[in-house]
Design a protein that fits this description.
37% helix; four-stranded antiparallel beta sheet
Length: 65
């Protein structure tokens, strides 16, 4: 599991975009979003670097939490 911090994720639309981005990269990925802490927990075959790059492409800066 990888925990990422996404400081700009603040609403339901952001949550949906983040989930769609991660599952677009890895359809088998499991994503748990916590809007209150602005963290996501991802279980995926994709690398952390690939997840961060995909999220950046969707407009969200992410970093390992």
């Amino acid at each position: 599991m990888t925990r990422l911090s996404i400081p700009d994720m603040s609403c339901g639309h952001c949550k949906a975009t983040v989930e769609k981005t991660v599952t677009g990269l890895d359809p088998a990925a499991k994503v748990a979003v916590d809007l209150a802490t602005r963290h996501i927990d991802v279980t995926s075959a994709s690398t952390t670097e690939a997840l961060i790059a995909a999220l950046k492409g969707a407009g969200f800066e992410a970093a390992v939490a």
